[in-house]
Amino acid sequence: MDFVGSHILSVDQFDRGDVELVFRVADRMEPFAARQKITRVLEGAILSNMFFEPSTRTRVSFGSAFNLLGGEVRETTDIKVSAISKGESLYDSARVLSGYSDVIAMRHPEAGSVAEFARASRVPVINGGDGPNEHPSQALLDLYTIRKEMAARGATIDGLRIALVGDLKFGRAVHSLCKLLGRFNGIHFNLVSPPELTAPDDIVDALKSARHSVNELFRLEDGIRDVDILYVTRTQEERFPSQEEADRYRGLFHVNQHIYTEFCEPNTVIMHPLPRDSRTIANELDHDLDQNPNLAIFRQTDNGVLVRMALFAMVLDVVDQVERSARDVNWYTAKRDPGRT
Amino acid sequence: MDFVGSHILSVDQFDRGDVELVFRVADRMEPFAARQKITRVLEGAILSNMFFEPSTRTRVSFGSAFNLLGGEVRETTDIKVSAISKGESLYDSARVLSGYSDVIAMRHPEAGSVAEFARASRVPVINGGDGPNEHPSQALLDLYTIRKEMAARGATIDGLRIALVGDLKFGRAVHSLCKLLGRFNGIHFNLVSPPELTAPDDIVDALKSARHSVNELFRLEDGIRDVDILYVTRTQEERFPSQEEADRYRGLFHVNQHIYTEFCEPNTVIMHPLPRDSRTIANELDHDLDQNPNLAIFRQTDNGVLVRMALFAMVLDVVDQVERSARDVNWYTAKRDPGRT
Amino acid sequence: MDFVGSHILSVDQFDRGDVELVFRVADRMEPFAARQKITRVLEGAILSNMFFEPSTRTRVSFGSAFNLLGGEVRETTDIKVSAISKGESLYDSARVLSGYSDVIAMRHPEAGSVAEFARASRVPVINGGDGPNEHPSQALLDLYTIRKEMAARGATIDGLRIALVGDLKFGRAVHSLCKLLGRFNGIHFNLVSPPELTAPDDIVDALKSARHSVNELFRLEDGIRDVDILYVTRTQEERFPSQEEADRYRGLFHVNQHIYTEFCEPNTVIMHPLPRDSRTIANELDHDLDQNPNLAIFRQTDNGVLVRMALFAMVLDVVDQVERSARDVNWYTAKRDPGRT
After folding, report:
1. What is the least distance, in Å, from the CA of A145 to any CA of chain B?
2. Please, which pLDDT band fits residue B132 given cuts at 50, 70 and 90?
3. Distance (Å) from the C-alpha of residue A340 to the closest C-alpha of chain C?
4. Structure pTM?
């Protein structure tokens, strides 16, 4: 795809070459995100951060990524704050608001709304999540994390063995990640879910016809052996027909240090799209793993800044100017181990 | 008026020379708002954007205008977030908050509140709308748009023929625009409204005594022939005594491409203060006009950035420094046709 | 204490030397806060301003202080906007969000929550108030104001005579100020409160064992004679057993110009942590004092910017670079009398 001036709406836009290009640009953002260097390449540019649904993490990540490139951020964080509630069409909102900024990052609770907005926008729009539909920068940061973690182990994405655990029926993050992984070669998928929450047929069929190996499993201990990546998501318990039925599976989807030690290979990487639900009733990923160096969940969110910086730089066509204007950071920066949290 | 250090509270502050001065400065902001050039003239300055009532459009427009001049923006978007709800006087809020910024843009639901705030503020305050009372930057951007659209047709504001359509009784935007137009010469006003929603007598009388031509009309097709500008506003249907009565007028105030073609001169400019209500029940300005090149509603909001940049630059006395520090934009910018949407 | 890279969570961290160091740095911030000069020393740095409880004043003060040093601000202003409401632990929020910024300012309604957040954060955290517990920058700005006001009268903090008036039992600001004052020598405290709302024993005992003079009084006119500083707080009337009992004390704690003239020494400085409750039912500090040059309440909030700039500069280790990069302000700035409001 041609990134310059493009909307980023769906992982379907990205072929393998596109994904790898984003990752190479993201690598170059590391010194800036790690506060070793600063760049002012987007000084004077404005991001309109439009979040019509709460998401502190994604909103601040987009905003900080733009700030790290030197740009300014104008935010809208509440749909009730918007003229949309007064009967204004998305078309009008897009035409108007795209006159106030150079690029827009947008989250909206309704599937398709961000694409509809983008059609009327006069500046590039990046989808920050449109309900159950798409959240492409999340899938890219997940895959970017996998690539980095595997590289640290001397391996690549090709040939990866990954367990995806939890609600695979409704989980937007898992669907998009599967699509992106499907662009690579010889991936071994363990899809671990309750029988009621298996991955949609079209996802599974597409992986199989691209000659990936796909195992659908219902018990945690069956699925998490012999994998490089253990990707945990929350079980959407409220979707079960009854609480009793939900209770049947809860034990299977509680990952903690004990289960990790008993069933996983020693260096298995643990991932989660976050937020993890740490209430006792859910707790799909226990805090007793917080000191485990293979827990990559905070490296994921750190990588999100790199990927979003890359997308902004590519869409606004400043990739090759970023380093040219770099200078050293002159303030105290906390030690951030780039390899380990 | 002397703009430097002044509050901008009301269109009553502006004589014709003031209006024309603002417009000449706004013209000079075009390359910056169009992202051809950037300026950092207000680098280090802080705008406090205080919106005690929701208004995404106006809030982001003020904020982006300030960013485009190089300044920073601190925002407050919810009156419940404020100490005002704990019994603090507007006087205290103004004294305190004016210590945190160089200029304040403020919207508040109560008439007169922004002026009261300004009296206690130690920095200039720009009224971004105080309930039914004033919204001077809206009136200025409307008139600036009229000037530009007429100039593209080889004409001026003097001698303008304009139809103002909709709720002329309560519409703040229309009242302020009439006042500003009244400073010019030989304006022909067609005031088209339901009989219950005619413009206030003092507005009409002032226009007549300044020797403008004023026709009050009740049917859309009578009012929109032979005008240069068709300025549509929403009908405040909820103010009618009954829904049946409201229904009698609804057809008259629904402007669409068919009505435009049948009744208007070929190049009549269509304006609206936005947001337009696109729900079927209202729909005073139909989306079938969106491709009509004479639809100026998005040029209006674009012009709003220019006018607000001009006001900031004039109040903070940096007009002549803006171009001095200009440099070219180095990122991708969408094609924005300055003449047509 | 070593400020570089430290969390600022409690006044207990500050010994007298630390306090005096903060004040000397705050003095150097004056030309920047007064918009005589600008510095860009933190250009490229990001403050995450996380307010999980409304506080316009403190939030904007932190944000403006960071902007005045050249940094950018990303804000979160509503706990419902946060993943915390979806079962995310403070630990996760802190790990994630500290990857997006260089320093965090945080307010939270629960005592201890900011310290808990700080333990997991990878960047320095400044406590902007954690419920009834601590608000160290408020105590520092109060004491900094006292130092400045006394210096203008040729005096020092040592030997200060101060009346603290109002709810001394629950008032967080008063407790912290007492602790900081206790680090100095020979302070004369008049603690004026209703009998039900006297200061906690541990506060009073600590002051006495440090050989300060402490008088506990119940009538306003007994406590406000012979003091240099009259520090008024709101009476938390809702905590009284009955409205009748609350009514008994209301007159005592209403400070106005008449009472000031009758009972106070001519140059007694009037302070208040703000917001003051100006509703008739409360009105602990009357607006008829607004023109009194000894009313220091708005100098307090102005000083808050200086103190917060100092804390940011010290924690991020840029104190000695601030002036090096200074340049003159080139826009209109309102006259701000640094000595008098």
Report:
1. 28
2. confident
3. 13
4. 0.95
